[in-house]
Amino acid sequence: MPPTDPSEGPGTGPGPDHPGSRTTGLAGPGVADAAPAGAGPPTDNETTLELQLSEEFIELIDHGAPEPAAITAGRGPAGAIGPGSDLLDSLADWGPADTGAGTFQLVPVRVERDLRLITRWMNDPAVAAFWKLGGPESVTEAHLRAQTGGDGRSIPCLGVLDGVPMSYWEVYRADLDSLARHYPARPHDTGIHLLIGKVADRGRGVGTRLLRTVADLVLDHRPSCARVVAEPDLRNTPCVSAFLSAGFRLTAEIDLPDKRAALVVRDRALRTLL
Known about the structure:
With 274 residues, the protein is of the alpha+beta class. Helices cover 26% and strands 23% of the residues.
């Protein structure tokens, strides 16, 4: 199976028993130069530049992008993650990491800030086919609030690359999740779900780098965790292939309530070998 970026497909979505399961992130601003049709050259005393603002950029203006301080510190505002967040060893404090494709950081989601764009991403037909969270904002909001208001066993995050939110992640305690009923879970197993937000960011070879980076962040900051797990839909071949290219190994095919999944594992003991 050739290496493939998971961003070429919809990414991994939560199973129906995952906290709040029924919805990611904030797409980065896009600015493009465009010359008006039929416009002549600028006059000697005037230079005209027309900017086309993406819908994502307009919404960032309306609702506010992640604050630079939050991105720098890796911490959302108070209350951004639920009580008991130590279940994931203070994920908000993990800080940035170099991916080879830019500086990446996980920033916990703020529902009020991120809801519109998360909903838009979830309604991309390619995404909805696997995440099954298409529909109105209320569907997305219920999914997010179940995690941000929960006990901290699952934390939804923006994936911020070079200061631009461009992906959505859920980092969760797989050993405390319903997934543990379907495989021989070990204490502190940590699971990940991901979604590359904008179509323009898919297929650029970034997804595999981000998967490896996030798995390394988990292993670096969760010393009790011996392995990172994921369960992409077997039908999502590009995503499964990307996990394998990122150093995960296929350990089993498992039947979950909503899909037949590939159980993939990134082992601490093998992280330098794969």
